[in-house]
Amino acid sequence: MSAIAGLALRGRRVPDAAPLEALSAALAHRGPAAGPPVLGPGLGLVGRGLPAEPLSAGAAMLVASHLLASPEALRTAQGLPEARDAELPLLLYRRRGLDFGAGLGGAHALAVADHAMRRLVLARDAFGLAPLYFAETSLGVAFASEPGALIAAGFATPRLRPAARDELLQLRFTTGAETIFEGIQRVLPAECLAIAGGAIVERRRAPPLPEGGPEAISEPEALARFEAAFLASLAARLEGPTPGLLLTGGAGAAALVAGVARLGLPPLPAFAPVLEGQAAPGDAIPVPVTRDAFWACLPALAQALDDPSAEPAHVLHWLLAEAARGQVPALLTPDGSSELLAGHGRHRAAMRPWWLWGRAMRARGAFDRLETLGIEPRAWRDGIAAAETAEAGSGRSRLQVAQAVDMGDWLSNGLLGGLDRCCARHGIEARAPFLDAGVVAATFRLPDALKVRGGEGKHLLRRWLGTPSPRTTPRLPLGAWLEAEAARLGPLVARQPGVAEICRPGRAEALFRRATDRRAGAAAWNLLFYALWHRVHVEGVAPRGDAFETLG
Questions:
Q1: What is the largest CA-CA distance in the chain?
Q2: Of 174, 247, 260, 405, which one's alpha carbon is 20 to 30 angstroms from that of 416?
């Protein structure tokens, strides 16, 4: 949950401390200040939660938002000398230059001030667990762990890109390097940027996924390989203060519980969402997910998700992190298991040919054929199509291509970004044992039949667990909750400036009146989230009370 920010100027003058302090203040929820801004010729750096660590030789300085998966394993694998854990990325940078991030593993967003080469280097982990953004301005390049900080410090404005807005409405997330805000970009997962003279001079990205199609391997061999990699990853993320478990359901969550037991460790505190009429699994701490809790959390959730994601799972993430606050310093999440082991229905549909009712992933947008929007979006799928083209080839199966596309945009921009914000706002660090280089190497190139069998995904994981049907992820009754409040919610949403400019008169209200219809309900939820998000981040209205009060 730590953060970094800074400014690389076009000239060599030492920057003023004020804009750096503004960046730091906007990230205050991500941890205490690591100290005053670090200032130098043409450069200023700030950190939250983790200190700026100078390399002993004085040639470079690091500010970092990171969790190395296993510092000791990193030393051994990379042949690094004994040093403080915080210095390891710098040692690897001295050895590998711009390729240093690929050897780190874990979750990291790093800024290295290389005084010898007069450049600033930004790097992000392979799967986008740690966020990092930048804006190119007349002064130079500003960067921060959240786009909201760049806006708050005056390096960008909350002006929207219509193409990204359409993506958000249709897909629930945005794709590629450009964010929804004009002038703010993401450092992509596995990417490294070099900045010199206040301008980006090089962008380098390592392939985060293994190349090649499905390999030949037996199920027993695959199970043994997965277990070794997963337990090693889990053990590394259990180092330090005891974390809790985020039990959102499914085989991935069950694997976290089973993995802790197979490591011979006592059960960890576990937090499970519970809808009305349900019970928490085992000894998990039940976290009630009620209609009142839903309406109450939405404004704060929209405020936290400055890089917007309308994924309903973030409601669960928010409520679980809220319940865990003060009880554990970190939460282990099963996120990534569905993407690695084909747990989504869209993966299984994409692997079938068209004549067996197969279909391209995300082929239909939430508002298609609903006649709600004034101008029907046309280019909303361009980012997905570009990713499909980029990920195809090298012998990959249809299933592998679908998984790679999901991991490239949906996972980092839609799921992990929201999880990060939900946890950070409650002082908690999110850790993802499935998103480990060893686990990815052990699973991504498995034969399709070891991922999908009998119409179900995650076959290998279910075999490893020995349980055919773990508790499924609770599905929020969004349609019922939205339709029950349609009389007051529909008009409230429809008259919001962000909604009024994109919807036909009377059509937004109609969505809420029939929100129990699957398609209408999905679109109504997207519109509600967008209305709240737009009110907070574009109109600048501070959340107050529940969703109705904030929109009122």
A1: 67
A2: 260
Distances (CA, A) of 269 to 125, 241, 245, 331: 27, 12, 6, 9
Phi, psi (deg, nearest 5) at residue 100? -70, -30
CA distance 146 to 32: 16
Q: What is the mean pLDDT of residues 466-495?
A: 90
Nearest to 163 by CA among 148, 182, 187, 136: 182
Cβ proximity of 145 and 109 under 8 Å: yes
Average pLDDT for 273-293: 91
Contacts of 334 (CB under 8 A, 6+ apart): 246, 248, 250, 252, 253, 255, 256, 434
* Confidence band of 5 (pLDDT split at 50, 70, 90): very high
Count of beta carbons in the 10 Å neighbourhood of residue 218: 10
DSSP 450-517: HH-BTTBS-HHHHHHHT-SSPPPPPPP-HHHHHHHTHHHHHHHHHTSHHHHTTB-TTHHHHHHHTTTS
First to last CA, the chain: 32
Q: What rounded mean pLDDT belongs to the chain?
A: 92
Structure tokens that stand for 42 in this block? 């043409």
The CB density around residue 370, as the number of other CB atoms within 10 Å, is 18
Determine the average pLDDT of the residues in 162-179. Answer: 98
CA 298 from chain center: how many Å?
A: 18
Please tell me what DSSP assigns to residue 49. S
The domains of the chain, with CATH numbers, are 3-205 (3.60.20.10), 219-361+375-465 (3.40.50.620), 478-551 (no CATH)
H or E element in which residue 251 lies: helix 250-262
Rounded distance, CA 176 to CA 323, Å?
33
Q: What is the pLDDT of residues 288-329, one digit of tens each?
A: 999 999 999 999 999 999 999 999 999 999 999 999 999 999
pLDDT for the residue 54: 44
C-alpha span between 457 and 285 (Å, rounded): 28
Selected residue with higher pLDDT from 302 and 110: 302
| Torsion region of 545: left, alpha or beta (phi above 0 gives left; psi -120 to 50 gives alpha) | left
Residue 65 pLDDT = 67
pLDDT band at 55 (very low <50, low <70, confident <90, very high): very low
Angle at the Cα of 315 (from 310 to 533), degrees rounded to 5? 40
Q: Given the structure tokens 């501070």, which residue do they identify?
A: 542
Burial of 25 (0-12, 13-18, 19+ CB in 10 A): middle
E strands along 353-443, which residues?
A: 429-431
Rounded-to-integer distance, Cα 77 and Cα 531, Å: 49
85 is in an annotated binding site: yes
Position 56 scores a pLDDT of 38
Report how far residue 364's alpha carbon sits from residue 170's, in angstroms, rounded to the nearest whole number.
8
- Going by pLDDT thresholds of 50, 70 and 90, the confidence category of residue 85 is low
